[in-house]
Amino acid sequence: MLLLAYLSLAQLALADMNNANTRWSVMLITVDCLRPDHMSVYGYERDTTPNLKRFAQQSLVFENAYATSVWTSPGIVSMLTGYYPSVHAQNGRYSFYDQEMASPLRIFEEQGYEVLGQAIKGPSHKNLGFKHSLRKENGLERLIEEKSKDTKPFFAWIHTKETHLPYTPSDQNLARWAGDFESSEGVEAVQNHFAIFRPHDTQVSFRHAGNVAFTKQDAPVIRALYDGEVADIDQRLGRAIERMRETGLLDRTIVIISADHGEELLEHGWVGHASTSYDGKLYDELTHIPLMIRLPNQSLTGRFDALVQSTDLMPTLMELLGFQEINITPEMQGHSLLPLIEGRQSNPRDYVFAETTHRGWTTPKTQMQNRITMVRSKNRKLIRHVYGDQSWLEAYDLKSDSTESHNLYSHQAERFQDLEKVLATWSENNRDVAASLVLPAAHKQLRSMVEELMRGSLVAAVDHWRNIAVMHSTWGLEAAPFYHFEPYQAKWQQLRLSAANQLAQVLQCEAQTGTWRQIASENTIDNDLWVCK
To answer: Does 168 score more than 50 pLDDT?
Structure first.
């Protein structure tokens, strides 16, 4: 009876929200490298997040949320699209998301939302549907002041880096846990460098620390410094939430607080994550992320220990806002969490997945196909490494070994055969979904190219042809490009050949006029070669 009453109240609240006059805005705040097990709102012994504790009392808190990758671009794009990294392919600084490919953010715009974001000019984010760029400096605070005076609904993504290397907390929060700590080579590295590369042969242009020797004595100091950063972002978010309350913006905005990925703090021998360590890993300290969602009317609250993934966020928002009937092709790979939230479902998924290149953003193009993939259930995990011709597996019983210290695969492989099959099926499914994402977009580019050619706009046509070539290059960097497999291989080759032939024919026609034809004549090139058909 209580459950039925609860569901009735929730349904009434959602129905009220979907009224055109009360449409909620969405503010997604992601904190780089933020670990839930270092947040007191998630049970950490140090009171690092008192403000988020208060926020959580009015929110939906997910205890077992996981990122899809361990560096920013693939993790954030998964969150914004509902697709896994090997589908959206934003796995390196050489990858581009095409403007014709499906993106939920475009649906927000079609529904009358202003769509704003940070870092949206880079290749991974610029074609996701963002229309306006937020300033990096005080972007959250500026946004609150501007939107408190504007009633038009908006979707805004704000990304902050307080908990990213280097760890330089405020004096107040430095003193709380670090005190008069003893410095060392390792401690100085985390205080001064954006990246601390593990291999000795690293060659990148930006400033980094190399050849650092960490010691056991460094661990508590480094964690204290990191905790100070967590306290800093908690205070900033606390001020922002209070300002939203004062201005009334909190009463009409869904606020989500999450992270792109976690951060290693010497649990497995190093500090940072794939992009900052040149040493990709998929342990829980890197994949486990916070996820808190506050609805304006606080109709739905509570804590949930079911497995959820960052890909689930966008389907959840779309159902909350009444957009779930709007078609997205291919269908998002995440699941709406509303059935879990409303008590109609106990476990939206049996597994979560993640993947990474070995060196994150800093991975050279020649090493992009070397990948690490992971499948995790509530109590077990399997990690697969591929590096050139070599591959190996790690397997962990998380119930008895929560720190992932004892690889069981060499002598208990049979216990994890089911996870091997699940991981293989997931990889194959990603290939099919990637094809469904890319092929329709490429056909749209081809049609646009032909239309521009018919108008005589050769430069514009070349841009569409180039976009198809960029898709080929982007997905060609994946470990198993969809166009290497049938039936997609033949379709992709035919599409690219058709685009090239259309463009070549027009170029031949162009060659019959002006200087091109004169050059051909002067060099005794047979004019029959230049006849338009």
So the answer is: yes
Q: With contact defined as beta carbons under 8 Å apart, do 154 and 115 qualify?
A: yes
Distance, CA of 474 to CA of 472 (rounded, Å): 6
Whether 174 and 136 have beta carbons less than 8 Å apart is answered as no
Query: Which string of DSSP letters, residue by residue, matches 373-442?
Result: EEEE-SSEEEEEEEETTEEEEEEEETTT-TT-----HHHHGGGGHHHHHHHHHHHHHHHHHHHHHHHHHH
> How many C-beta neighbours within 10 Å does residue 421 have?
11
Report the run of H or E that residue 74 belongs to, with start and end.
Answer: helix 72-81
Please provide residue 390's backbone torsions phi and psi, each rounded to the nearest 5 degrees.
-100, 145
- Residue type, position 447, single letter: R
Residue 404 pLDDT more than 50?
Answer: yes
Distance (Å, rounded) from C-alpha 195 to C-alpha 190?
A: 8
Query: Cα dihedral angle (79, 134, 34, 178), rounded to 10 degrees?
Result: 180
- Spatial distance between the Cα atoms of 278 and 14, rounded to a whole number of angstroms: 45
Q: What angle do CA 161, 167, 170 make, to 5 degrees?
A: 90
- For residue 152, the SS3 value is coil
DSSP assignment of 333-351? SS--SHHHHTTS-S-S-S-
DSSP string computed for 214-264: --TTHHHHHHHHHHHHHHHHHHHHHHHHHHHHHHTGGGGEEEEEE-S---E
| Pair 446, 57: CB distance under 8 Å | no
| Helix 218-247 with 185-192: angle, nearest 10 deg | 20
Residues 6+ apart with CB under 8 A from 294: 55, 58, 59, 60, 250, 254, 255, 256
DSSP 53: H
Q: What digits encode the pLDDT tens for the residues 222-241?
A: 999 999 999 999 999 999 99
Most confident listed range (94-108, 120-134, 451-465): 94-108
Euclidean distance between CA atoms 520 and 179, whole angstroms: 79
H-type alpha helices, 251-307: 274-277, 284-287
Closest CA to 25 of 253, 188, 240, 244: 253
Cβ-based neighbour number of residue 427 at 10 Å: 19
CA angle 236, 242, 243 (to 5 degrees): 90
pTM: 0.91
SS3 173: helix
Token representation of residue 107: 């649906």
Amino acid letter for position 83? Y
pLDDT tens for residues 258-286? 999 999 999 999 999 999 999 999 999 99
One-letter amino acid for residue 251 of the chain: D
- Single-letter amino acid, residue 204: V
What pLDDT is attached to residue 9? 42
